[in-house]
User: Fold this.
Amino acid sequence: MTFVIYTYASTHYRLISLCIILYLIRELEERNFYPTLTPEKAFGRYSEYIRFRLRWFKDLEDEDLPVYRLLYEPTTTLRDEFPLGAGRNRGLRYIDAYNGEPIWERI
Assistant:
């Protein structure tokens, strides 16, 4: 394991030392960080997971007379195979630009 230490003076004349592990830099240089998925294909992958549901929303403009609007709400949730409650649902966050796989988040 090789360590490289860079030291330089900042604008406040404080010395800042950065310890960088050289093998991590080389490993990052070997990786391909360029997208292989076009924006159109990414949109197509995203549209496979998006669904719409009808939901009532209260219009807050007029406090005296409640007005509700029925709107389509997009949802990209995926339930686990064995749902254990609301904390087990996942929402689609991103489409990986390299391999096209969905990246989920817990909601």
User: Anything to note?
Assistant: The chain is about 20% helix and 40% strand. The mean pLDDT is 74. Residues 1-31 form one domain. Residues 39-49 form the longest helix (11 residues).
